[in-house]
Amino acid sequence: MAIRLTRRGFIAGSAGLITLHPFAVQAQANQAHLRIMETTDLHVHLFPYDYYSDRPIDTVGLSRTASLIEDIRAEGTNSILLDNGDFLQGNPMGDYIAYERGMAEGDMHPVIAAMNALGFDASTLGNHEFNYGLPFLMNSVAGAAFPIVSANVVKTMGASPTEDETLVPPYTIIERELTDGAGEAHPIKIGLIGFVPPQIMNWDRKNLEGNVQARDIVEAARAYVPQMKEAGADIIIALSHSGIGSANEEDGMENASIPLATVPGIDAILTGHSHLVFPGPSYDGWTGADNASGTLMGVPAVMAGFWGSHMGLIDLMLEKDGASWRVVSHTSEARPISRREEDRSITPLVEDYAPVLAAAQQEHDETLAYVRRAVGMTDTPLHSYFALVADDPSVQVVSEAQMWYVAQQLVGTEYADLPLLSAAAPFKAGGRGGPEYYTDVPVGPVAIKNVADLYLYPNTVRAVVITGAQVKDWLERSAGMFNQITPGGADQVLLNDNFPSYNFDIIDGVTYQIDLSEPSKFDRDGAVVAEGANRIVNLQYDGAPIDPEQRFVVATNNYRATGGGSFPGADGSTIIFEAPDTNRDVIVRYIVENGTINPAADANWTFAPLPGTTVLFDTGPGGAQYAASVPGVSIEEAGEGPDGFARFRITL
């Protein structure tokens, strides 16, 4: 699997130029400095543009990250550029290519064209690469002028990983020359191996079942890394499209980067998937992760945010040890493309790199025309500023569309007479996306860009049959969004920052309250931690307490129905309907069918009263105009929050 590549991404600089980096002053005649640059979770963000709000922004875009990359290359140091996956899906350009233009054999995907223009040395596959199906994926990556590797997605599984037939090569070894501290050139073989969460088999079952299988990440690494060493790899870099999770190894881990770091022979790890930054405050005090040294279990590592927000950089000082190289020192950092100022404004730190823009300009223009098409009208503002604290119109319209669609599909089936509910969650609700990361569609025309804004992912509709008891536990799982609140306390923090908004399911068709004085029954990952906890109170269907034995149909999506988020009653075994249509297509059809929609929140859920108690939460400043009209809850402004957010108070 040795490939000799000559690319401008790996520049052998002179000894004088190498002195630009701190390591270089230490470099001796047998030492050389290697700079490993990472992008991760680009999600088709090539331009600094928000297609949902239809405006330029300075916080995203490979065209901006590319300027950081070119700065490193301009220093003339030994460098290599790697992508860590999730590049094909994630914004309307990705949907336009998949659903409108298509990817026939021989077509060039704009993301691949941009990556070719920037001169990537290799990439791995992320879980979202599989969202549009295997033919789309393989036609897209066929245009790459660089190797794409993934060791744990296999077409045919053998007795051990090294006997598998993988979907793409499990690893590659690229041969380069390093210029040492004395200006002498030396050959080096760099091994690159990739990994993706095995949960793809659940998340994209429709596309993958019967076509590929997924192995455990660490299992695959332990098998292939020795083989790479035998093939002559001097150093090995793991492209781990897997987050930084528990340090305790378990089979089938989604976020396995820390156990991966314990595999002998891996010299550096590029991580991603979690849309966070490492080294960074998100991992302060994290077992197995050292922010100060930028390491996982002692191995240099980096995670470069998402959507091009950062460029990850690992600097290795390598020393020639006989005929091979070894790492003697290292640093790690994630360099941002923008900075948020104290007045909440954004200052761009770099300009666009023109070749990236040029590679996708036509598709960018076509995407703009695509997202601006109107499909109907709304009589109600569709915003998500308060989606985590009250019944919300942006979630309501998704829920109504799902229920409308599934009701039609069940006509004439054995499930037609069962009560029909609908589960939906807010996707754009601030958090890591920042204070502008909210849906905000005013009264008036609804365009495709607005529908894509309401529902970010190309999920497909599913329906499951569960009991009333499972409906309650589904909601108990969802209620992990909130911290436990002490009755009578003032200004306590309401939201659990570690709980993702896409796991905050609201179920329409029932009414209920959430008692915040109770502990959460489930932890962040869905494990039961308080068996007797009852946050969900006054749960009713059709005006009467819900019958724990009653069967219900719940409209949802393929991610949730197949186990995504670990919700009770949703593990793949309860599915009774699998739609060929995406949730977004269903929302578009629902709006077209109705012409004008009025998905006003109906306050089917509220917080249970806790007299004398107030709580605080942060949301986007744009929410101030809607605060007084949120149903079922008393909200007032409470000053500024951190990082550009606005703070609000709820009296329970």
From TrEMBL:
A GO term, aspect molecular function: metal ion binding
Cellular component terms per the entry's GO annotation: outer membrane-bounded periplasmic space
Organism name: Flavimaricola marinus
Keywords associated with the record: Hydrolase, Metal-binding, Multifunctional enzyme, Nucleotide-binding, Signal
GO biological process: nucleotide catabolic process
Ranges where the Calcineurin-like phosphoesterase domain occurs: 34-275
Keyword match Hydrolase: yes
Signal peptide start and end residues: none
Annotated protein name in UniProt: Trifunctional nucleotide phosphoesterase protein YfkN
SUPFAM superfamilies named among the record's database cross-references: 5'-nucleotidase (syn. UDP-sugar hydrolase), C-terminal domain, Metallo-dependent phosphatases
Subcellular location: Cell envelope
InterPro entries: 5'-Nucleotdase_C, 5'-Nucleotdase_C_sf, 5'-Nucleotdase_CS, 5_nucleotidase/apyrase, Calcineurin-like_PHP, CpdB_N, Metallo-depent_PP-like, TAT_signal
Record keyword Calcium present: no
Lineage top rank: taxon: Bacteria
Transmembrane segments: none
PANTHER family tied to this protein: 2',3'-CYCLIC-NUCLEOTIDE 2'-PHOSPHODIESTERASE_3'-NUCLEOTIDASE, 5'-NUCLEOTIDASE-RELATED
Gene3D superfamilies listed in its UniProt record: 3.60.21.10, 5'-Nucleotidase, C-terminal domain
